[in-house]
Amino acid sequence: MSDQLKLLMDYTKFHIGLYATLCTLLIAILGLDPWKQNSAHMSHFLLTTLVCFVIAGAFGGLIGSSLPDYTTWTDFQSARLGPWFLPEKLRMPAPWVASAEHTAFWVGIVIALYGVIKTMKT
To answer: Are 1 and 71 a contacting pair, CB within 8 Å?
Structure first.
């Protein structure tokens, strides 16, 4: 495995850990009794954020689980990733998977921040 792929694996493991931590935090917050009583109107923002983080984690997992199959950065960048049972044409290009992972994460962050700002104004 090339150095670039090793760095990508470390980066991906960090992201997956971050998503798991944030999902755990969101679930804990949503389960708190004071939250349920006082801030229920923000729950749908946090639930949507949770879904975005789970999607980001799934894409990160797809990248991380696929990396050992490749020995060079070029091979990985030209790979199509997806479940083994899908035909090659239905799998997603690796750069697209990485972009989808980051997009899902940042969409979740924006939704959470929007919910906080909207809640603070009311």
So the answer is: yes
> Residue 93: which domain range?
3-121
Q: Please give, one letter per residue, the 3-state secondary structure of the chain.
A: CCHHHHHHHHHHHHHHHHHHHHHHHHHHHHHCHHHHHHCHHHHHHHHHHHHHHHHHHHHHHHHHHHHHHCCCHHHHHCCEECCCCCCHHHCEEHHHHHHHHHHHHHHHHHHHHHHHHHHHHC
Which pLDDT tens digit goes with each residue over 39-67? 667 788 888 999 999 999 999 999 999 99
Q: What is the dihedral of CA 80, 111, 113, 116, to 10 degrees?
A: -150
What's the structural domain count of the chain?
1
Question: Token pair for residue 104?
Answer: 């899902």
Query: Structure pTM?
Result: 0.87
